[in-house]
Design goal:
9-stranded antiparallel β-sheet, single chain, mainly beta, Beta-galactosidase, Chain A, domain 5
Length: about 425
């Protein structure tokens, strides 16, 4: 025990002597100054390299909000894509953007053009702007804003239907084979019918029930199914709509199948309302080619009233039947062309829109014989040209039509179905290999 106490006392005495010696010698001060100088040197070196500024920027940078997916109609956007063929001098389709939450609107189609590179072929806002506009409420309560962007699919009629305003003021009354149809009256297109006209059908804002998509060797395919029922009471029977879009480098094929799933007969019209963009803004130089047809006479262009007469186009300002078409010039087009005739080598009546400044053209072929009308809307002050292949004439239930005139509405009995199909092709104007005369 005495030995342990002696060792502890000796250790304590040694620590006191070492501390006293260190303090008197100034060694601690020297060590402290060396540490301070080293820290300052390292800091100055990092300042010279700019690392402090980077650190300050990183510390002050606010975290970016996570990108929120745009879902018009509450459903994800479907995008079909493919890569361009290296070294190909001809134009090609690159993608198709579809909105299954808004009646399968073909919102955008992109292509690569030899003179321009990648371009948007349809007149549409950004997806973000579309998401803010396509609310299904207010001015879009009937889905009418879908008619102002991309390419809306129109079912169970295409174009316009006129009728008598209903007592409550929100619908118009239309008679079909003794059955009264009550249609929403606030959906307008190029004409303001003053509450006596409906446009664009009833699929415009409807969300799909199922959506599928597949990657294919040269593009892809997407399909959406809509269990439309009786379109919220506006149609006499129940309907199932199946839409299919298939993308490849040279063509886009679209199919719409309508099936009567109800217990009574119903009329059915189908159409597509694409707004093709005028890339350079030079509307007058755009060229239009139409099949041999008759034009539906418009009695009053202020409100779109039709006379019920069909007039020839040959030799008139509406004659676009030449092999390469004719320039739009200053003609303000808002007209339907019916009694379409196919060319000898064509798969169906064909329409072409040509852009000489950008050396490309678009060709629409009506594959199914049920497509009886082509409506062209090309406003003088517009940034687009709409070419609409559709089953029915404008105002197909109107009293102005001669008895026996087939205005294009297909009558579906319970269990029956009908199909609308078109092929959209892109081609070069200067390449003989892709020219179609």
């Amino acid at each position: 025990m005495y030995w342990a106490l002696l060792k502890q006392g000796f250790a304590a005495r040694r620590r006191k002597l070492w501390h006293a010696a260190l303090m008197r010698s100034g060694l601690l001060t020297i060590v402290f100054l060396m540490v301070v100088v080293s820290v300052l040197a390292v800091g100055w070196h990092e300042h010279i390299l700019g690392h402090f500024a980077e650190l300050k920027h990183e510390l002050n940078k606010r975290p970016e909000p996570e990108a929120v997916a745009v879902r018009p109609g509450g459903q994800d956007v479907v995008r079909l894509e493919r890569s361009a063929i290296a070294g190909d001098p001809n134009p090609e389709f690159l993608s198709a953007t579809l909105l299954p939450g808004r009646g399968m609107n073909v919102f955008q189609i992109t292509a690569t053009l030899p003179l321009r590179g990648e371009v948007n072929l349809l007149d549409s806002p950004s997806l973000e702007d579309a998401g803010r506009l396509l609310t299904g409420t207010g001015a879009d309560s009937t889905g009418s804003r879908s008619l102002n962007m991309g390419g809306a699919i129109e079912v169970p009629w295409a174009g316009r239907v006129s009728g008598s305003p209903a007592a409550e003021g929100q619908n118009l009354s239309v008679m079909w084979h003794g059955t009264r149809l009550m249609l929403p009256a606030d959906t307008k297109d190029s004409y303001d019918g003053g509450g006596t006209m409906a446009a664009g059908g009833l699929l415009l804002k409807m969300p799909s029930d199922t959506v599928t998509s597949n990657v294919m060797p040269d593009g892809g395919q997407a399909q959406a199914v809509f269990h439309a029922g009786n379109f919220d009471g506006h149609w006499p029977s129940h309907t199932e709509i199946t839409t299919t879009v298939e993308l490849s480098g040279r063509a886009i094929e679209m199919r719409v199948m309508a099936r009567n799933t109800g217990t009574t007969a119903e009329p059915m019209g189908i159409g597509w309302h694409p707004r093709f963009a005028i890339l350079n803004g030079h509307r007058g130089q755009m060229m239009l080619r139409l099949p041999s047809a008759m034009r539906v006479d418009v009695k009053d262009r202020r409100n779109g009233d039709l006379s019920g007469r069909l007039v020839p186009v040959e030799g008139t300002e509406y004659d676009f039947t030449q092999p390469k078409g004719a320039k739009l010039g200053a003609l303000n087009l808002d007209d339907s062309f019916v009694r379409l005739k196919r060319g000898m080598m064509d798969n169906g009546p064909m329409v072409e829109l040509r852009d000489p400044e950008n050396d490309y053209g678009l060709r629409i072929t009506a594959v199914t014989p049920t497509i009886k009308a082509i409506r062209v809307y090309a406003p003088l002050d517009g940034s687009y040209i709409s070419i609409e292949p559709q089953f029915n004439y404008d105002d197909p239930f109107g009293r102005q039509w001669a008895k026996g005139e087939d205005t294009g509405m297909v009558v579906l009995q319970p269990g029956e179905s009908t199909q609308w199909k078109i092929r959209l092709e892109i081609f070069s104007l200067s390449s003989n290999q892709t020219e179609h005369l």
